[in-house]
Amino acid sequence: MSYVYLFLATLAWSFVGVLVKTASTMVDSSIITLCRFFFGVVVLAIYLLMKDGRIQFRARMKWLWFGAAGKSANYVFENIALMIGYSYGNILVQPVQTVVLLISGSIIFKEKVTKAGWLSAALCVIGVIVVGWNGVPLDELLGSSGLTTLLFTLAGIGAAIHVLSQRMLVKTMDNGNMNFSVFLLATLMVSIPVPFQIHGFTGPITFGAWGALILLGIITGLSFFWFAEAMRRVPFAVVAIVGNSSVLFSILWAYIFFRDPITSYIIVGTLIFVAGFLLLNFSGPRKKPVKQESSAEAAL
User: pLDDT tens digits for 106-141?
Assistant: First the structure.
């Protein structure tokens, strides 16, 4: 069953771009962001009530607010970029997050970054540059192509802040109630501008778009638990390889569902930063979960 959980988590993350693109045919990015958190909170609440019979919501810890702000920024910038760019573009979030976590870990937690760690960070940066460049002329790179890369970079920074908050909060809270509290606060944050919008619904109302919004919420609420369950029993090498393969599936789904152009630059850049992920996973200390969390949380 643990292998099934690992497969479900990986598959779920790979569909995020396609689902956001599908939902964008009906609503704008702010509604998508709100629904990702709202339905995620609902799913988490049901899970916690079935598992523990109660929910422990907290709001007086500063790292809860940092985590909510970081995850809000992650979803806000990611959804905007996915709407104006290609559905596989969010593969850039994970390598950016990995680099930010390595640097912040060395500064905030005084952790020593090995040569392999810096090499991993360099591979991630190079991969992001290659994918973001995608062989386009300089004038186009400074236009829409550069904008989407910037937005995904900001999304990766937000995701890293969320993971850092989890590292601080896990000492005093269990994962389920911690994520519920963070996602509920994030729901409140991203809902602030919604009442002032004139056109939240931008296209025809369809079952497909509503289904995409609900599935995005389910991914937000449950994929972390699936991955955590898999890590307890599945061999480390399998978790590292399969967990990071979601970026490859994201590219595959983008081509199958939207015929997004997959150039040699996209393929080469992706392989470069995936190599950086694997080097980081296999060279780092395995007893510290933050390295694995960095791979998992980017796609939530």
Answer: 888 787 888 888 898 899 999 998 998 888 776 666
Per DSSP, the residues of 80-100 read HHHHHS-TTGGGGHHHHHHHH
pLDDT reading at 288 higher than 50:
no
The Cα 73–Cα 54 span in angstroms is 29
Q: Side chain identity at 196, as an amino acid letter?
A: F
Question: 107 is written with which tokens?
Answer: 């500064």
Q: Rounded to an integer, what distance in angstroms lies between the CA atom of residue 240 and that of residue 165?
A: 22
Paired residues of 27 in beta bridges:
201
- Tokens describing residue 16: 């995020």
Query: Quick check: 98 and 121 in contact, CB under 8 A?
Result: yes
| CA distance to 24, 37, 179, per residue, from 31 (Å) | 9, 10, 21
> CB count, 10 Å around CB of 7?
13
Angle at 163 between CA 291 and CA 93, to 5 degrees: 80
Residues 23/32, Cβ–Cβ less than 8 Å: yes
Cα separation of 262 and 137, whole Å? Answer: 17
Cα–Cα distance for residue pair 222/241, rounded to 1 Å: 20
**How many C-alpha atoms does 217 have within 13 Å on its Cβ side?**
25
